[in-house]
Amino acid sequence: MSDINRKVVGILVPLFAGSVVLANVLAAKLTWVTLPGLGGVAVPAGFVAFGVAYLASDLIVEFEGEDLAHDVVNGTVALLAISYGLIYMAVWFPSAPFWPNQAAYVTTLGSGGSIVLASIVALAVAQHTDVRLFAYLFERTDGGYRWVRNCGSTVTSQLVDTVLFVGLGFGLFPLLGFGGDPILGVEVVSIIVGQYVAKVLVAGIDTIPFYIVTELVER
User: Fold this and answer.
1) Tens of pLDDT along 83-138?
2) Contact call for residues 170 and 142 (beta carbons, < 8 A)
3) pTM of the predicted model, to two decimals?
4) Which of 121, 116, 113 is nearest to 177 (CA)?
5) CATH fold for the domain made of 3-218
């Protein structure tokens, strides 16, 4: 690893891990986004942070290859699981008698078991898919057409992430008794479509910083 690559990757690894954990915390809030052709849709507020995470993972593959990126993804999956454990521990701790915000704290941070499990599974599958597809497109294009591998890998893996997270977190896992009321049928499809379109728009915007960073490092 060259000195410049070491410095860049030293920034990208914590940026990726931090963005993933932060995105899952921010997802406790649903924001309302108006999308062309779809109108208003509810999207987890962490969707921009997820875009940052995908940008960071693509840049790691770009500079240091597939093997390191897979290791970073595995470490981040473990970090997310540990983070949820620490969050639940903080929620469980008794609050000070003069502190009146315990109910709001639990509502904001105490995600149900179905959502937690779905987040971890979706992260692991989607991010490994992103890394493999990015590396494959890099080889097929001989390192050219950077927008193809950046957008192609992210758009595909974001679809995997959205379908898994929504399908498991709102459908299968609640049915299996992991918490929450199951949402099935047309409602699940509408959630998937809305979230995916929003994520695709962020992925397109990600191409700009991807080109900027790769150009600066090459120079």
Assistant:
1) 999 999 999 999 999 999 999 998 888 878 888 999 999 999 999 999 999 999 99
2) no
3) 0.90
4) 113
5) Arp2/3 complex 21 kDa subunit ARPC3 (1.10.1760)
pLDDT tens digits, residue range 125-173? 999 999 999 999 999 999 889 999 999 999 999 999 999 998 998 888 9
Query: Residue 94 is which amino acid?
Result: P
If you compute the radius of gyration of the chain from its CA atoms, what whole number of angstroms results? 18
